[in-house]
Specification:
With about 180 residues, the protein is of the alpha/beta class. It has a single domain (about 5-175), classed as Pyruvate-ferredoxin Oxidoreductase, domain 3 (3-Layer(aba) Sandwich). The chain is about 35% helix and about 20% strand. The chain has helices at about 20-35, 115-125, 130-135, 135-140, 145-155, 160-175, 180; strands at about 5-15, 35-45, 50-60, 75, 95-100, 110-115. It is globular, with a radius of gyration of 15 Å. It starts with 6 loop residues before the first strand and ends with a helix.
Length: about 180
């Protein structure tokens, strides 16, 4: 198997305040806990809260030679104000988006619409939306729930809200048959 087959390239689109950078850091730590390699990158505007945020993570079973990529395997689009227009969704194996984007995103390809923002507000606010979104990766076996929780503990962020966000993300993913829809 080539290194490419062992590498997952994820891009997350959202807005400042959704915890994009934090969730990618958490996911990266979780991957390394499991003996994988991970590298993250994010960009955001000067306004930060409420402005577009883009975050990338590469997770691999092999050394990561180049953490930058043009086309992700997986895209998460969590908010309509995120700047996701610069991605060609034809190159994305799977796109997981919030339900509110159903009318905005083209209905082509492998799209999964989930109530990410609704669940985030139920948990305690917008800041939990990214943790809820990345928790879908537990259901498809990219990382385990225990690794995500250990990562949060290492970061000093193992609190009730983040624990609920992970549980809500996993529950939401199972209710929407993510495992069956996952085509990575």
């Amino acid at each position: 198997m080539s290194v490419q087959e062992h590498t997952l390239k994820i891009r997350v689109f959202g807005i400042g305040g959704q915890g994009i950078r934090f969730s990618l850091k958490t996911l990266g730590y979780a991957a390394t806990i499991e003996g994988k390699y991970a590298s993250t990158y994010s960009s955001y505007g000067a306004e930060v809260r409420g402005g577009p945020v883009l975050g990338d993570i590469v997770i691999s079973e092999e050394d990561i030679v180049n953490p930058y990529f043009k086309h992700p395997n997986v895209a998460y689009i969590i908010h309509s104000k995120s700047n996701f227009s610069n991605i060609n969704l034809k190159h994305v194996n799977i796109c997981i988006a919030d339900n509110t984007l159903r009318q905005i995103l083209p209905a082509t390809g492998n799209r999964i619409f989930l109530p990410i923002l609704e669940n985030a507000y139920d948990v305690g606010g917008l800041q939990y939306s990214s943790i809820i979104a990345i928790s879908t990766l537990c259901v498809v076996g990219v990382v385990s729930k225990d690794s995500l929780l250990s990562s949060l503990k290492s970061l000093g962020k193992l609190d009730e809200g983040n624990i609920m966000a992970i549980e809500r993300g996993i529950q939401m993913s199972m209710e929407h048959n993510i495992r069956e829809l996952w085509k990575y």
